[in-house]
């Protein structure tokens, strides 16, 4: 926590706004809008997953539709497709950003059009905070007139050509889950330029109650609004977002500098014009075996590290879905490791990790 969170939570208690609406929700939304600029409208929700679910519904995704989704991601990017009875088509990553490959994505779209069924939406992800190739993806999406849901759950504070992530898709989404760069313990947001989309998102998120003195419903609704208590935490967290990004980026730079003499370690560099919040510091090792040696050596010292996300097309639950893969994400999954990346790590903590990696790789 940054410092002011408890004051805002106390304010919710003092004013008795213990509800999924209230001054903290409005102020939290405004602080994100100010941070993102570009006249974005933000709807604070109960989770990033809820935001993706509402985004797809607002784009008209329904039973039997196809939705293109980056395969190299966390399952919450893809799960909401199935909540709507639609089907994911998974697309592999390109090696420069580890995110959705424009070439494979266009191939998937062309094949869909060939059988007369245009995908209803594209879910692209700024994974680990590294922006995807926004210009290329948006150009293809525009060419075929398919809306993009910009999964920025891991990318608050990242920029593409100096403009913040979550402002590039038809709808962007953010997450404030406990593990993200800032947190409300659980929470998310839908981001859009379109006031009408925000209004509809809030309507659906609050049980789709029509304008009447009694409870009247002409839509199926959800209970997806953020609580005013948790939004108080969010207000405090937005005051320290820049510090959090700086600390995460420091972790990455420190690892990279100190490990630079080890030729077996590869880092994901920022391509020109892309700035990652470095939510997690990730590295690639020469093989699965060496990756595991390092992971287990760290574990031996009670230090947690994790393999990169297992691609969705390899997940038992999605094994029968269509996919366009060329081995990129499977290779990343085999050889990749997320190093300890918390915003509160001290140099001494990072040095312990570095020392263990040195021991394994120079043995
Ligand atoms: C965390 C995450 C989500 C889901 O956000 P929640 O707030 O945990 O529901 C979606 N996509 C990605 C890439 C994530 O990392």
Short description:
With 363 residues, the chain is α/β, with parallel strands linked by helices. It has twelve helices and 15 strands. It has helices spanning 5-14, 23-36, 48-58, 79-83, 102-114, 134-143, 195-205, 228-238, 241-258, 288-300, 328-335, 347-362, and strands at residues 41-45, 66-70, 87-91, 121-125, 148-151, 159-160, 163-164, 171-175, 188-192, 266-267, 274-275, 281-284, 306-307, 322-324, 336-339.
List the topology elements.
Elements: H1 5-14, H2 23-36, E1 41-45, H3 48-58, E2 66-70, H4 79-83, E3 87-91, H5 102-114, E4 121-125, H6 134-143, E5 148-151, E6 159-160, E7 163-164, E8 171-175, E9 188-192, H7 195-205, H8 228-238, H9 241-258, E10 266-267, E11 274-275, E12 281-284, H10 288-300, E13 306-307, E14 322-324, H11 328-335, E15 336-339, H12 347-362
Parallel strand pairs: 2-3, 2-4, 3-14, 4-5, 5-8
Antiparallel strand pairs: 1-9, 6-7, 6-11, 8-9, 10-12, 12-15, 13-15
Helix pairs in contact: 1-8, 2-8, 10-12
This protein binds pyridoxal-5'-phosphate.
How would you characterize the overall build of this protein?
- This protein has 363 residues and is α/β, with parallel strands linked by helices.
- The chain folds into two domains: 234 residues, Type I PLP-dependent aspartate aminotransferase-like (Major domain) (Aspartate Aminotransferase, domain 2, 3-Layer(aba) Sandwich); 121 residues, Aspartate Aminotransferase, domain 1 (Alpha-Beta Complex), CATH 3.90.1150.10.
- The strands form three sheets. It has an eight-stranded mixed sheet, with helices on both faces.
- Strand 4, helix 6 and strand 5 form a beta-alpha-beta unit.
- Helix 2 packs parallel to helix 8 and helix 10 crosses helix 12.
- The longest helix has 18 residues.
- It is globular.
- The two termini are 40 Å apart.
- The site of pyridoxal-5'-phosphate has 14 residues, from helix 3.
- Pyridoxal-5'-phosphate binds next to helix 3.
